[in-house]
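Cont'd.
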Amino acid sequence: MDLYQLKTFYTFGKVLSFTETARILYVSQSAISHSIKKLEQSLEIKLVERKSKKLALTAAGKELFESCETIFFEIEKAKENIFKRNRNHLQELIIGSTVEFGTTILIKHLKTFIDNNKNLKLDFIFSNDLSRYLLTDKVDFIIDCKKHFSHDIENINLFHENYVVIASPEFIKDNKITQLSDLERVPILSLDKEGLWWKNFLVSINISKRPRFKNINQISHIRGLINGAIEGIGVSFVPQYTVVNEIENNALVNLFPELRLKTDQFCIYIKKKKLSLDKNKMIIDYLTTIKPAEFSGF
Amino acid sequence: MDLYQLKTFYTFGKVLSFTETARILYVSQSAISHSIKKLEQSLEIKLVERKSKKLALTAAGKELFESCETIFFEIEKAKENIFKRNRNHLQELIIGSTVEFGTTILIKHLKTFIDNNKNLKLDFIFSNDLSRYLLTDKVDFIIDCKKHFSHDIENINLFHENYVVIASPEFIKDNKITQLSDLERVPILSLDKEGLWWKNFLVSINISKRPRFKNINQISHIRGLINGAIEGIGVSFVPQYTVVNEIENNALVNLFPELRLKTDQFCIYIKKKKLSLDKNKMIIDYLTTIKPAEFSGF
DNA sequence: AATTTATATGAATTAAATTCATAATTAAAG
DNA sequence: CTTTAATTATGAATTTAATTCATATAAATT
């Protein structure tokens, strides 16, 4: 069993595409095709189901892939052990997180950690579609409000994210917004066209009182939603921590502070095996000692 | 971390010699030297202590070697898993055992097992110095009367080996051997020159009655000791199971059947990790259900 | 001191993986 | 229902990297 063919197969198993595997490993698609074929020949068993253009692992392939998870993790661990002895070697740790949380709250709270762990190089990938980063090991772990359930993924609660409905004081005055039903006649700013972004708001309100938005404007970034509200374009719905300052400055007003809106649970999601790596232990220890309230912006 | 350099390092770690590693991997000594050097360079750490001609692992080297044990065992396991799906693939299992026990008793008892496990190819290495076969993974496990203690080696008791003092009826008559002290004036046949082979005999006898051999003849194989006794060259000391037939035929006589001689404990010694491999489980299960008495030749 | 045995090293060689160029296949788009 | 774009397969050419060769160096053994 050739170890490099195995490595190629493992990478392929995560993405199920030869072209993508080639990109990840910085080689040509042809190399991947040759490599996997040779592995199959040497083991005398089909690992990849090539029906049409869509590729999938065979039963044997799935089994071998599971073994690969262990094998390559052990290699990873061995590397960490060796590098720990190497004073001048920087360990690398890559965190994936949602864009807004990552760029503001996370970065802010990690300052101390980064200063105290000079032997650790922290990289960040901010995205709102974190699943594949986690599964393909492009990150060591992710911090996400979406759920990721799998037998080999551990989830660690961090905090509940509160949402607020916001608008500028002028907008509220001009449009005379005092109650929920008023939202039906003003522009609703949402990440998506359909207003699904407001889901947590809507499900928190009794169906009889729930406003039916008539006028939804899409703005595809949270910072856009915030600035849109500040400029008086409409009403926005955003995580509370993103607008703590704006509300304090009276640039924005929390429209319905009395409402108990559904919160999102932010968790760390990490492959169980990776929990045993020191670098992950350290930063997770650090993150879990931060009080939930600090994360939510208070 | 290059996986083939790692494999080379792992093999080296077992034998601590570049030349020997080269032999095992069927490459030149130069290749090993280059390979280990490159690995050290890529990890930026010394793995091998090259003081004089004798090589040893550094602390980092030992740590990496331990990791290798896990890594390459996982690969072994992965292989077994895949090959199990392959109907026409023969699994290989190599047993190491002492020469006499292996060539007679073991072979005899494994007949049924071999017949019932056609998908398993059994190989045997018979030697009286089994340690290195075990530690270098040249065998899957060994059956030995010598002790092998290590944190990662499991031992499983099989049976006690009884020894007997034997001579031909003619020899006994001619030399009028009736008591222990008679042994002092006849040729003593021993595997070694010094008569250490008779250790189990001597320690079993009170020091006051213990004979002091005057005339020791070395014969370097047990079968030689037996045939030497049959031919009337002298008195031999051998495991009981080796001469069951000869005693029955009256070719040999058990000289002091009333003595309670020290026995040797025969055990299976196997690297703990290997216990989880199916092929090993199967044969060990089989061996441990055989009654000790059957092993000792009754 | 001489001989044997073991490791180190740079250059030459060899082996094997990768790329290149292109065909074949299929999904997606118009 | 074409056309286009994207993906995999394949054999030959190329490139890369490991291995050998030839030899030096060093230590242990006789």
